[in-house]
Protein 1
Amino acid sequence: MTARRLVVKLHLYTGLFVGLLLAVTGLSGSVLVFREELEALAHQHLLVSDGSGERVAVADVVAAVQRAYPADKPFAIRVPRAPQETYLVKLNNAHDRFVYVDPYDGSILGTHRQRETVLGWLALLHTELLAGEAGETVVGVGGLLLLGLGATGVVLWWPRNGKLSQGFKMQWSAHWKRLNFDLHRATGIYAVLFLSITAATGAAFVFNASAIDLVDALTASAPRPPAPRLPPDRPGAPAPTLDALLQAADRALPLPTTWVSLPQTASAPLVVRKKRPDEPHPNGRNFVFLDPRSGAVLQLERDLLAPRGTRVFNTLYPLHVGAIAGTPTRILQAAVGLAPLVLMVTGLAMWANRRRRKRPPR
């Protein structure tokens, strides 16, 4: 078997094996690029308050949610970033029950579990195939296989006569089989760079620890510091309120707060997430770790002062969702998400046609 024939086989059977998975994650990803705007249309009554005046204390928001759902545990709080935006309190984990609270009177506007909404269901399909950690691993492996498909695809695309321009052209007047081949080849070469970035970043989220180690090694960076643990308790002084903790975080790092991660164990800190105005990450990559018992700042993480490897890793999510340069790159990313479906359909047509040619006459 020649080297080219081996590459053909690898490309073909990898595509047949993983094509449907890539089409599903690509299509769902194209929709999720505009998740924020679509949620605003679908759930405006949950996301927008018509109140005004002074906002209620954040502690009162959490207390109202706990009274309404005593069997659930507050996990994280999305802080309003605009005057009429509501609080979102996540219960139990990042993907379970979402509760929306009016920031001006503390009333609960509504609730749902993530998989109960179309966009929430799509997000779980995109990230874990609705199958938890096992599905997440499958998605990550699919991303790695997509990198292999891209590499073998470029090898097969490369014109043997050296005329690269031929590889970008479509013969619109040709027979449908030739047109299908040209569409597969052109879609692949135009999308390969963007699909490779999407695949690599997506796989990095799944295999997070290994990806962090790899980026640190490639950038010759020191490992990022672990999240701090609480020091020994000093009983006597009353614990500060949640609002006092947020004020301490603002003093330590005066940037807008986006999320608050509440301690889930007795030894865990409270984590306040913040975002610079010009930061490409939608939620920011600046963190304040606080001792919830005393309000002491345990650790600060600033994106601009982070080790080189951490700064590189912080760009992966904005790259994955097309947030690097605003709306133009988001539109581009949504278009790229359609490419796996086109490649799957045209690839299947090519494979079926070849099998039909090889079938002996009856």
Note: The first strand starts at residue 74 and ends at 78.
Protein 2
Amino acid sequence: MVPLNTFIIMSKQSLYLILTVFLCFKAVAQDTNFKTYTQKIGGSPQVYDMVAIPGGEFSMGSPANEKGRRADEGPQHKVKIEPFWMGKTEVTWDIYDLYAFKNMEKEMGARHPDPDKSVQKTDASTRPSPPYVDMSFGMGRSGYPAINMTQYAAIYFCKWLYEKTGIFYRLPTEAEWEYACRAGSKTPYSFGDESKIDEYAWYRKNSDAAYKKVGTKKPNAWGLHDMHGNVMEWTLDQYIPDYYAKQPKGEAFAPVTELYPTSVRGGSWDDEAADLRSAARVASKPEWKILDPQLPKSEWWMTSASFVGFRVVRPLKTPSQEEINAYYSPKLIEDY
């Protein structure tokens, strides 16, 4: 994996800066026991399964003759990926609410003995401002994917999780996301063609206009659920339509330097089948905050993005403490 020399700037409308983080450069081994594991969330009954994703090389993007292909998916190019772990499912409200609502975390901790004192470790964590409406919009909460958060909020969730566990978690790059989604496949979907989509994905034709509980469809070959459909997922990348054509040789990451657009992957319950393909890319939009009554708009919530969530990754090798601190310290700046 290439070093992520990332400068991402965050404003009161979600433009942010991730300060020079070499996620896999000058790194030390984080765990030599590379296998799938379950991360316990201290002070609660919640757990989060992390799937071991082997390193390798793959062709990122789609071939010119793929049905539903768009111009931003090409040209295909080889990308090498280092081993990492990825969440088996999207992060659910059950876990996200512990981060978003400090009182809930404390109340849960009082009912569940926390020998590692992780609740105390997160007492000063930076958290989202309270939303003015139920951000699940009545579609379900327990067991359902958390939605409507900004990429900035997802990064701070990763910081909170690091503070609780001592383990470095972050969002995946676009390349990591597609590599994990494909799970060694070269077909439009990890499971082949569109004929099997109802077995693996929630999308416009079978979702009844709402997201579903995570993990209720078949997983891909590497054991990841809902990589196709249910909710789209944030990545670390700036969305650049022609990036594949002009990226420097060997690089597979586009640092975010502008508020919009950033890259979201996987398609959702509200999308057509073609939008769920492994190579399909989506650009974030200002309209995803159109219902936010605040001026300026919230850094934390995308009030009209009920189709966007995220899952986290953990690299086999972790950055230095200095680089971790920089990654978890996005600087707010004035925008408008």
Note: The mean pLDDT is 89.
